[in-house]
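User: Please fill in residues for this 319-position structure.
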């Protein structure tokens, strides 16, 4: 292999730039030409492709977002769209592709692999919802952003003796909510993977209030439903003054944490190595601090699960 490409796709995540940097530098280290594809699979179909050099990825390791930009492409889900992408790859002589993104992006990578273009996936999403890896790039930064925000909310919650319902991202996964709730000492954590007993949520709030607790924090994963609806229900069921905060896109931006920069560098460099070693249709991951790779097809067929022991602990610690 003499020329490879790299793209970021789907929702961006802090650490994607560190991953792009590692792909480019590792490829050049192996004396391979590397091409950056802008705007994900959409840009691939449109031929928005340019050669990258060592300097193209200077001064980006600490930046949020993605210098290659990102998109969610409906057209690339079609056979015609994939053919358009393949024509562009042929035109530029690109023989293999590194795809940094989440499960939707890996579906595209799998299609290209099946059509003869070897792809390797690098898990980049704040949701931490990909099996085959303990962590995805961006999760740690998003988690720390949530915690910083909740710490601030807690100050005002205490001053006013209010209960705060905080809705966090995660799509259908509860990892961000669970980790943030545990790190923030939330009274209750509502996640899609666990059935919520609403009476238990109310009981915990009332118990805390009776003990003289000045604030209450309830973290709700967006996959459970609207934080505002939960807020209304809590207001009806308790005497507490409630407020709702939807953290939103603040969770997707910002400078990546050290953990995310290191994770991104390790995963992306490994992706280049296995692509050059002849592997295809694989996703790199980290499990027990060891680099691993799994078949993308296998990853896509598995359902994300949360750490149940951690969920139980969060409940035990907020009695
Ligand atoms: O997958 C990352 C994520 O931020 C999810 O947490 C959220 O549900 C989704 O993307 C939002 O996607 P979009 O920015 O395309 O609306």
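Assistant: Residues filled in for all 319 positions:
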């Amino acid at each position: 292999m003499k020329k490879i490409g790299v793209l970021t796709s789907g929702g961006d995540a802090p650490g994607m730039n560190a991953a792009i940097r590692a792909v480019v530098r590792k490829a050049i280290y192996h004396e391979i030409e590397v091409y950056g594809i802008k705007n994900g699979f959409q840009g691939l179909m449109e031929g928005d492709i340019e050669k990258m050099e060592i300097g193209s990825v200077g001064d980006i390791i600490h930046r949020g977002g993605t210098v290659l930009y990102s998109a969610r492409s409906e057209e690339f889900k079609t056979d015609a769209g994939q053919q358009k992408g393949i024509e562009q790859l042929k035109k530029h002589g690109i023989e293999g592709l590194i795809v940094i993104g989440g499960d939707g992006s890996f579906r595209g990578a799998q299609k290209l692999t099946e059509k003869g273009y070897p792809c390797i996936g690098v898990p980049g999403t704040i949701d931490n919802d990909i099996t085959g890896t303990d962590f995805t790039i961006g999760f740690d930064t998003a988690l720390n952003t949530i915690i910083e925000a909740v710490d601030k909310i807690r100050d005002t919650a205490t001053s006013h003796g209010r209960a705060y319902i905080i809705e966090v991202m995660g799509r259908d996964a509860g990892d961000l909510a669970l980790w943030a709730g545990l790190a923030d000492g939330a009274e209750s954590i509502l996640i899609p993977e666990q059935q919520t007993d609403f009476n238990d949520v109310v009981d915990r709030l009332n118990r805390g209030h009776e003990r003289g607790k000045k604030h209450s924090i309830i973290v709700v994963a967006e996959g459970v439903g609207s934080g505002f609806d939960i807020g209304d229900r809590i207001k009806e069921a308790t005497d507490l003054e409630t407020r709702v905060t939807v953290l939103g896109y603040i969770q997707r931006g910002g400078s990546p944490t050290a953990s995310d920069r290191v994770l991104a560098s390790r995963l992306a460099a490994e992706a280049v190595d296995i692509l050059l070693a002849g592997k295809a249709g694989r996703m790199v991951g980290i499990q027990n601090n060891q680099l691993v790779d799994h078949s993308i097809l296998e990853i896509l067929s598995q359902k994300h699960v949360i750490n149940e022991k951690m969920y139980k602990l969060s409940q035990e610690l907020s009695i």
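For context: Residues 3-138+256-300 form a domain with the Rossmann fold fold (CATH 3.40.50.450).
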